[in-house]
Amino acid sequence: MKNTENHNEPKLNLKGFSEADLKRNAFKTPEGYFENLTPRVMASVRASEQNTSRPTFSWSRILVPSFGIAAIAFASWFFLNQSENLTPTFDTVLASLSVEELTMYADLQPSELVTYELVDYEHLELSETHISEEDIFEYLETEEEVELNTIIDEIEI
Amino acid sequence: MTDDQDKDLLKRFRDPSSRNMAFTELVNRYQERLYWHIRRIVVDHDDADDVLQNTFIKAFKNLEGFREDSQLFTWLYRIATNEALTFLKRKKRNIFASLDDVSHTLSSQLEEDPGLSGDAIQLKLQQAILTLPTKQRLVFNMKYFDEMKYEEIAEVTGTSVGALKASYHHAVKKIEAYIKQMF
User: Fold this and answer.
1) Of A14, A16, A65, B36, which residue is the least packed, with the fewest Cβ within 10 Å?
2) CA nearest A12: which of B129, B183, B144?
3) Is the CB of A26 less than 8 angstroms away from the CB of B125?
């Protein structure tokens, strides 16, 4: 393997230093390093061969995927739960409103419902107490006719 | 080791009954040369020892598939070089520097290295080599210290002979300039 191929190649030329000086090994190794190297290398080779040929039991092989699955399941549950919480329900909206806001709403948009809600039942007095049974039946019959007529009209249209 | 001896060794390695003996012989024959090749790249002895062990482990795992397109020793050099450069890349990641910047770290490490037996000129020569770009450094080491032919270095580095010649030429000029500046 000695190089004899080309005499024209550049030589390292440093005045005052011979090639032997320059090529002398600058590094040293611990004593007896090379004597013990072959058995050490062969031991490493054997150890690596055993590691690759014999799969050993490892908790991490079971635990790592398990933790992964658990994490995905938890994340999914958490996400879905959050999504549900994000959709406001009537109760949550109502709970978030202050009494002043509710009062203001009631003042601005008076409705039958609100009026009805505000009625004090205990002190309710009917002004007309002379309504007979006939009046009631007459009223109900009239209402039924109106509804039926409305439905028929809608079908014809 | 001649090609015939390599062929014989490979034949014995492929036979399961003589595999371990053949590989022990291979380690025994090439360990020292590979160690010095790696040591010149990684500088530190312990690092060189680790890289050498990994080199032989890789060689053992892949020797059966060695197609004999190249010589056995250049194939081993190739593994050793790759392992040493991979080691430096890992080191680079730890110090957040480029592969060539690692040379500066290695150069200062060289000054403090108790494992350096040479005198001032050898220290300066090693420092000068470490200033070279990685590929030029590899080429210079294999050509100057290991006295390998360009064709053999080409098998190791996968570079054309022409490019290697140019690389070596530049390396020599840079080293001379660096050392002249020092003395």
Assistant:
1) A16
2) B144
3) yes
